[in-house]
Amino acid sequence: MSNFSLPHHHSDESDAESIKKTLDNIENFNKVADIFKQLGDSSRLRIFCLLCHREECVIDIAAMVDMTTPAVSHHLKQLKSSGLITGRRDGKEVYYKASDTVEAEYLHKTVDKVMDITCPGRTDIL
Questions:
Q1: Among 97, 114, 103, CA closest to 52
Q2: How many beta carbons lie within 10 A of that of residue 82, not counting itself?
Q3: Which of 20, 64, 22 minimizes the C-alpha distance to 43?
Q4: Where does 1-126 have alpha helices with state H?
Q5: What pTM did the predictor assign?
Q6: How far lies 42's CA from each of 5, 24, 46, in Å?
Q7: Which residues is 95 bridged to in the sheet?
Q8: What are the phi and psi torsion angles at 22 (to 5°)?
């Protein structure tokens, strides 16, 4: 282990080295930033919220979020590539839902909680 120390000694440095190791793993931060980027778009966020609560096909998703099917397909592709949603084929239809991952579950809970705080008078079922 290297003996990392901060240039200024303002507080206890006992955990500085382990925190520095975590911060140096830029690849992990890039993965997390990509996930947050996906939810930084309100259309994708709405689609993700919908798919956290039910499985739907592209046409029904488009109707629920008042978007065109090509626009919804574009957002679904991005959400799927980041691992936040999955799709399954049934005949000619593809049905999408939130992934059964810890990340998707935590993001779902976080979004719901922030919505409760930010929009306290909401009357939706989400």
A1: 97
A2: 20
A3: 64
A4: 16-24, 26-38, 42-53, 58-65, 69-81, 102-118
A5: 0.79
A6: 42, 31, 6
A7: 57, 88
A8: -65, -45
The residue with tokens 């994708």 is: 44
Token pair in block for residue 51: 């798919």
Which residues are CB-contacts of 79 (< 8 A; sequence separation ≥ 6)?
38, 44, 47, 48, 51, 85
pLDDT, tens digit (0-9, with 9 covering 90-100), for 72-108: 999 999 999 999 999 999 999 999 999 999 999 999 9
Using a 10 angstrom Cβ sphere, with 0-12 exposed, 13-18 middle and 19 or more buried, the burial of residue 85 is buried
Vertex 65 angle, CA 51 and 70, to 5°: 90
Question: Exposed, middle or buried, 102 (CB in 10 Å: 0-12/13-18/19+)?
Answer: exposed
Q: Measure the CA–CA gap between 11 and 8, rounded to whole angstroms.
A: 9
Q: How many residues does the chain have?
A: 126
Tell me whether residue 28 is exposed, middle or buried, using C-beta atoms within 10 angstroms of its C-beta: 0 to 12, 13 to 18, 19 or more: exposed
**Which one-letter DSSP state was computed for residue 5?**
-
